[in-house]
Design brief:
This is Oxidoreductase. Belongs to the short-chain dehydrogenases/reductases (SDR) family. With 262 residues, this protein is α/β, with parallel strands linked by helices. Helix content is 48%, strand content 15%. It has one domain: 3-Layer(aba) Sandwich (Rossmann fold).
Length: 262
């Protein structure tokens, strides 16, 4: 299927590995000029080389650590210099540390809210006017199934990802008539470094092995396996296309049937 996005431009945040890289690869294979944004230059270079092995499209690298608003604004300037205003903006970032709702740390909550919410919101604010003027824009946020079914021990992720998703749903209604769509894709269990880290944290807390935690996780997934970044990237690439122009404000699970009743 031709997704009709060849020649478009995209920025993928957190693109050097995992689900972000899976999205970048899917877009590159469709002929999109992809800007990879991450903080580690060597990992970015490796990711770009891997993409150039599967696509002849242009791949750009933007090194940025979005830990402060100054850094976010600097990244926006670098993006504009490198590719202009992107047609497709993919908000993706690492998850916060585990924690319980009963153990409240105001400083931690404030820091994680800034890290998880402000980068994609600030970038959207910068690029949205041109998207609306052009009559085409795609804002895709990578989140988690915890948006609709909170995961025990991940209170920061549960709360902040839900906040970002509902910001996106609100924005989707405001810009729908301008050809701009805003969607949240909710991965379930994928075989990524983030999931492996969470397995180890749970294993340490429960006095079990990480492999046992993994086996227990697999038993809860109707598909009986973890997803792959390639599968996740394919969903995001479709949402980035004109073929998905009537899909907006959606929370889309990609989870092997993990969610119940959504």
């Amino acid at each position: 299927m031709d997704l009709q996005i060849s020649g478009r431009t995209a920025i993928v945040m957190g693109a050097s590995s995992g689900l972000g890289f899976g999205i970048a690869r899917a877009l590159a294979r469709e002929g999109v000029h992809v800007g990879l944004l991450a903080r580690d230059p060597s990992r970015l270079d490796t990711a770009a080389a891997r993409l150039r092995d599967v696509s002849s499209t242009r791949i750009s690298c933007i090194v940025a650590d979005l830990a402060s608003q100054d850094a976010v604004h600097a990244a926006i300037g670098a993006i504009q210099d490198e590719i202009g205003v992107p047609d497709i903006l993919v908000g993706n970032g690492g998850g916060p540390p585990p924690g319980s709702a009963a153990d409240f740390d105001a400083a931690l909550w404030e820091a994680q809210a800034r890290a998880m919410l402000l980068p994609v919101m600030t970038m959207t604010d910068a690029f949205l006017p041109a998207m609306r003027a052009n009559g085409f824009g795609r804002i895709i946020m990578v989140s988690s199934t915890s948006v609709v079914e909170p995961i025990a021990g991940l209170v920061l992720s549960n709360a902040l990802r839900a906040a970002l998703a509902n910001w996106g749903r609100t924005l989707a209604r405001e810009v729908a008539r301008d050809g701009v769509t805003v969607n949240t894709v909710m991965p379930g269990r994928f075989d990524t470094a983030r999931v492996q880290t969470l397995h180890q944290s749970r294993a340490d807390a429960e006095g079990r092995s990480a492999e046992e935690i993994r086996r227990r996780d697999l038993e809860t997934i109707p598909a009986g396996r973890y997803g792959t970044p390639e599968e996740f990237g394919a969903v995001a690439a479709f949402l980035a296309s004109p073929l998905a122009s009537y899909v907006t404000g959606a929370l889309i699970p990609v989870d092997g049937g993990l969610l119940h009743g959504h």
